[in-house]
Amino acid sequence: MKRIGVDVGGTFTDLMYWDEDGAVAVHKVPSTPHDPAVATMDGVRQLSERLGIAVSDLDQFLHGTTVATNIVLEHNGADVGLITTEGFRDILHIARKKRPLNYSSYQDLPWQKWQLVRRRNRRVVPERVDASGAVLVPLDEDAVREQVRVLRDNGVQAIAVCFLHSYRNPAHEQAVKRIIEQEYPGVFVSLSSEVAPQYREYERFSTTALNAFVGPKVSRYVDNLANTTREAGVRGEVGLMTSAGGLITARGAVDNPVLLLTSGVVAGLLGGCAIGEASGYPSVITLDVGGTSADIGVAPDGKLRMKHLLDTRIGDYHAMVPMAEVDTIGAGGGSIAFIDEGGMFRVGPRSAGATPGPACYGRGGTEPTSTDAMVALGWLRADSFLSGTMEVEPQLAVKAIDEHIAEKLGTSVSHAAIGIFQIAAHAMTEAISLHSVRKGYDPRDFSLVAEGGAGPLYAWHIAEQLGIPRVIVPHHPGIASAMGLLATDIRSETPATVWTSSADPDLDRITAEFDRLTAHAVEQLGADGLAPEDVVIERSLDCRYIGQGYELRVPAPSGEIDADWVARAAAAFHDVHERTYLQRFDDKPVHLVNVRVTAVGKVGHVPLADVETGGTDPSAAVKATTDAVFWSGAGEVTPFPTKVYDRALLKAGNVLEGPAIVEQFDSTTIIGPNQRATVDRVGHLVIDTAVAQPGRAIEGGQR
């Protein structure tokens, strides 16, 4: 079995290869934003050639992509039409009472300013189903045909169909789909009963419209990628990462492209979980820093946390699909530093991206970036970028920082560069605090996994600020998201609304829905080539106290669904509610809102092999000792003798004293002053962030 994982980022496309003999290889190529598939296949061909294999030897091709996310953020999706129940034309416009600025009468509401469906393309038809699924008003099929023809004449590229309570009875939506296929063949169709079959009308409408908005472009991209890999000879079907942390096939992605929102960022968290487990520290916080953004995830005991469905949004739109709790901020190697109109020193979120890139790249960029700051400080050496395969001009970095920052602040280039680093690092520190401390988790109980090309440059400092005891830098930090793809199973999750109470539970309905969803999940994964015995079924519930307006996800108890099962489910909810909100109400009935079935198809994970063992002395891996590396201490920024190591020459057991720089093809790691790193058995660098070294005249940052 030969497998390859490809993660497309804003600046670089990362690739990782693994086979059953234990061979592992990584590669990195510049992304091609105009067509991500170009960089993807170029990287695959180059890596295959380097390994001495043909592309046709690959059995599995796994992919993480930001295509769907970028379409939403850039507001350049399809022209969408909507067919809905008479009287509900403006659900998408009205949304919820919540506003970005609650007390402002003069504000742009993003979902109104950048509409998913223009009002002239929101068409209504007579029909009505009640909350139990009973038909109150039959569907007027003649009216449907008339409205589909209007949308066809208006030139819409996709049609969303959202009827009231269709999650209980999808018959009317299915009838509309048949009519659309007759009247407007080839148009992309998105049904709410298929995309988001659960209650909450606005969120269901928004999710279905989003699916239609991204559908045509994502379908073309996925089809093109699948065809390209097939023509190149890849034997297996393309697998794509979903926002829930599982894989779906290209066919599944084309049918339901909204599942690809946040596809790329989740792979980094999954990779971090595998890295932490291999090093013996399963509870991890992941910091994946690329060229344009930083992705932050928290996984207690190596388990992904799922966002509440009222918090699952992309950009300014609600997307009621399962999403792992990973968030992104605009801080990366390409983040631009500037002095704003008020004289404030800022970094990001604007990025130089892949083109023109940081000033030091010599591609026409003139504004200083975080990468330029690292170059000016000597932390990134000109001859170490991608193992010397990429030319970097340090004088351009110094010039950009001097002209745009140092001169305006009346300070030195080295002080300005340290400032750029600390401002960018502070933004990441705050984001990690938001997703750990403020959600009931103590960062001191976690390890920080540094990922991405720039993550290991920041992690040492951030861990110090948050009191995180250790940083784990994987063997290939710049390829961690690609590794996450190879550590992922095929997953398919389907919900159903049951709307019953623990005080008077509808046991038959709960049983029937679980049975229906299970059969559907097994059938769906069977269509993807998995036998029933290879599929693991996981059941869960969305519960709340009677009167609450939100739910929490709870693992469903095992066994027959009877009164005892309901009691155990309620007890589990009390525990989860207390863990989340520090309150529990054991005497209150529990409302079972939704049931969920997740089918997991095991595809085999990449085992991390042990590396060669050496002694504690890492001197054989020293590339250089340089005085041209600047560190801050006692309010000054001064050069300090710093050893530079070749990561490829380090062996298990080696101990590195900070400050030190460790270089490799896909990243550079900083071991801060007063820190010590040890190479563990699988080659990960484990940095102890709290090692006292008396007599040091420098420090890692502002304490």
Shape: globular
- The share of residues in helices is 25-40%
Radius of gyration: 27 Å
Q: Quick one: how many beta strands?
A: 34
Main sheet makeup: 8 strands, mixed
What is the helix tally? 17
Q: Beta fraction of the residues?
A: 15-25%
Q: What's the end-to-end separation, in Å?
A: 50 Å
What is the topology, as strand order, of the major beta sheet?
A: 17-14-13-20-21-34-33-30
Structural class: alpha+beta
Average the pLDDT over all residues and give the rounded result: 88
User: Low-confidence stretches at least 5 residues in length (pLDDT < 50)?
Assistant: 692-703
Q: What would you note in describing this structure?
A:
There is one protein chain. This protein has 703 residues and is of the alpha+beta class. A hairpin with a 5-residue loop joins strand 33 (676-679) and strand 34. Helix 5 crosses helix 6 and helix 11 crosses helix 12 (394-409).
Q: Which features characterize this protein?
A:
34 strands
List the helices and strands and how they pair.
Blueprint lengths: L1 E7 L3 E8 L4 E7 L5 H16 L8 E5 L2 H7 L6 E6 L5 H4 L15 H4 L8 E4 L2 E2 L5 E3 L3 H13 L4 E5 L8 H13 L4 E4 H4 L5 H32 L5 E4 L5 E3 H6 L7 H17 L4 E6 L4 E6 L13 E2 L2 E2 L7 E4 L5 E5 L5 E7 L18 H8 L16 H16 L3 H23 L11 E5 L3 H12 L3 E4 L6 H7 L3 E12 L5 H21 L7 E11 L6 E4 L7 H19 L8 E12 L20 E5 L3 E4 L2 E4 L2 E5 L8 E3 L2 E4 L4 E4 L4 E4 L5 E4 L15
Parallel strand pairs: 1-4, 4-11, 5-6, 5-9, 9-10, 13-20, 20-21, 29-31
Antiparallel strand pairs: 1-2, 2-3, 7-8, 11-12, 13-14, 14-17, 15-16, 18-19, 21-34, 22-25, 23-24, 23-25, 26-29, 27-28, 30-33, 31-32, 33-34
Helix pairs in contact: 2-8, 5-6, 10-15, 11-12, 11-13, 12-13, 13-14
